[in-house]
Amino acid sequence: MDKTMQIVNHRVFAHLNGLAIGSVAQGLLETGVLDRLFKDHQKKIYLDGLVANHCITLGYTRLAMETLCLAGLLDIQDEEGVSFSVQVTPRGKAWLNHRRLYRQYNELLTTSLESNAQAYICRISDDDKSTPDDNTLTLVHMHLYAPSICLIMLRLVEQGGQLDMVKDWNSLIWQDILRREGWVSISNSGKVSIPNKVGLLFAPLYAYPISYFPLLRQIPDLLTGEKTNTPTIDRELDINFSGKVFRGPCRDLFLNQLLPLFNTEDVAGQPNVIVDTGCGDATVLIEAYQAIRKETIRGQHLHDYPLLLVGVEYEIAAINVAKQKLQQEGLRHLVIFGDISKPADIHETLNKYNIHVWDILHISKSVVHNRVFTHPNPENAYSNNIPNLNMSYVDVDGQSVSSHSLFNNLVSFFRLWSPWISHHGMIVIESHCWSPMVSQIANDSYPMNLVKTTHNFSTQYLVPAEFYEGAIALSGLVTIKTNSIFAAPGLPPTMTIKHLKNR
Q1: Tell me, what's the pLDDT at 445?
Q2: What is residue 373's DSSP assignment?
Q3: Which stretch of DSSP H or E encloses residue 223?
Q4: Which among 82, 88, 209, 396 has most CB atoms closer than 10 A?
Q5: Which range is least confidently modeled, 165-174, 210-219, 242-251, 266-275?
Q6: Quick one: DSSP state of residue 357?
Q7: Which helix (H) or strand (E) holds 485?
């Protein structure tokens, strides 16, 4: 890795992971937990005692402690079903010296740079400089201005890598911060640009957390058990980001599995319908159709053997966006309501349109982990020999979810789909997390702490690839073809693409 890449890696992922740390730190500061960790930094502290003494929820507090653990600030000992304890690391002790800078961190999580500037200046004006640990303080400041960097970078990407700071945001503090970043350029007239290809490669990553700003603002309330009706995700931004991710690392590998199904001489035996469950803005459906039209035998016979594109979504906003995009492309399509957790209901709706299971190729992108979780009946467990993930998850009520329950729920999910994918199968693009140990080691290779925190607190169930593959195998499905996407060489995959079929 060259020097420029190392600098950008460190900066970008420190910002992104800092969003998770800052949101969690505010909640733990307000409830007195950070003060307790600072006071007893040499002791092992059991979670049950923290929950009882600080009036916080068990499930969400476990998630918060995991966020700090992935940052190297805490060590966790998790004997699942027995005890859960934490101990402050030396790095964590240095970080806790600056804990009060995270007060009301959610004031920084706005889409207004002017508001962010005022909130940030307020914090640094009374910063306690009593500790000589400047590296830690620098990192804390990166956490504090991370929300603003996200907004600036998103605007830079939208404007093709050029931005007039004087015209758009007349704020000297952000110009100063960007100069210190080391991978953006600011002219004397205030024009900002990303001068290297590495920067342009990483800048789009800043779009992801903005869609989760509403959730990150809610974390302090979740820790104290307060429920809100505010949407946890900006769905429009999330849909847009998901489409960009597909066009980046996923597209070619996905098409590598899709196109052979439409490139056989037996055109009549090919799928007649592509159903994308969790279709978002219909990017995957549109890209799939265009590639089939241009690159396969089926593309030469679409007049006689037309393809129907079906989008399935459970949110009205996404349904409307998908309809609009498919109409703009002039493609034969249908968009329906449906939940990936209920494949039988989806097919009941499809039957009303005379769409039959033997005609369908199913696809989905990053939706399996967003399924509705239900606790399995212990009597119906598929396996009792499940390794402890050493990770924390919660259900919609904030109750902890064990590795055993999560695994058996995932097996059940695939078994629910089994009857519906026996003919052409299902191509599944799915995101994955890493073990806590790998996440700590690879902090400068991927923003896994942010990804884990945003998914955990919004009850989405990312699991490591090997855990996911074990559930598929036990469900009875067969993997026809598989590809993996890696954040860096030597690390586990962050995404897999699998063509699954019933045996």
Answers
A1: 81
A2: P
A3: helix 213-223
A4: 209
A5: 165-174
A6: G
A7: strand 477-486
Does pTM top 0.85 for this prediction?
A: yes
Structure tokens at 294: 């241009």
Whole-number Å distance between alpha carbons of 362 and 365: 11
Cα separation of 51 and 57, whole Å?
6
Pairing of strands 308-313, 273-277: parallel
φ, ψ at 307 (rounded to 5°): -105, 135
Check residue 196 and give left, alpha or beta (phi > 0: left; psi -120 to 50: alpha): beta
Q: Which helix (H) or strand (E) holds 75?
A: strand 74-79
CA distance 100 to 502: 55
Contact 217, 109 (CB under 8 A): yes
d(CA 15, CA 150): 8
User: Using the 8-state DSSP alphabet, how is residue 492 labeled?
Assistant: P
pLDDT, tens only, 57-69: 999 999 999 999 9
Write the CB contacts of 308 (distance below 8 Å, at least 6 apart in sequence).
272, 273, 274, 332, 333, 334, 355
Please say if the pLDDT value at position 297 is more than 50: yes
Residue type, 117: A
How many angstroms separate the CA atoms of 316 and 248, rounded? 26
Contact by Cβ (8 Å): 411, 383: yes
pLDDT in tens, 215-225: 999 999 999 99
Distance between CA atoms of 377 and 384, rounded to whole angstroms?
12
What is the spatial distance between Cα 453 and Cα 23, in angstroms, rounded to a whole number?
10
Neighbours of 458 (CB within 10 A): 15
**Taking each helix axis from N to C terminus, what angle separates 3-30 and 134-158, rounded to the nearest 10 degrees?**
110
Q: Which helix (H) or strand (E) holds 481?
A: strand 477-486
Tokens standing for residue 29: 């500061």
- pLDDT of 83: 77
Q: How many angstroms separate the CA atoms of 124 and 387, rounded?
A: 45
End-to-end CA distance of the chain: 43
Name, in order, each residue with C-beta under 8 angstroms of 151's C-beta and a sequence gap of 6 or more.
Answer: 111, 113, 116, 210
CA 177 to chain centre: 27
> What three-state secondary structure class fits 46?
strand
How far is residue 387's CA from residue 392's CA, in Å, rounded to a whole number? 14
Backbone angles phi, psi at 365, to 5 degrees: -130, 120
Task: Name the average pLDDT for the chain.
Answer: 87
8 A C-beta contact, residue 389 and residue 406: yes
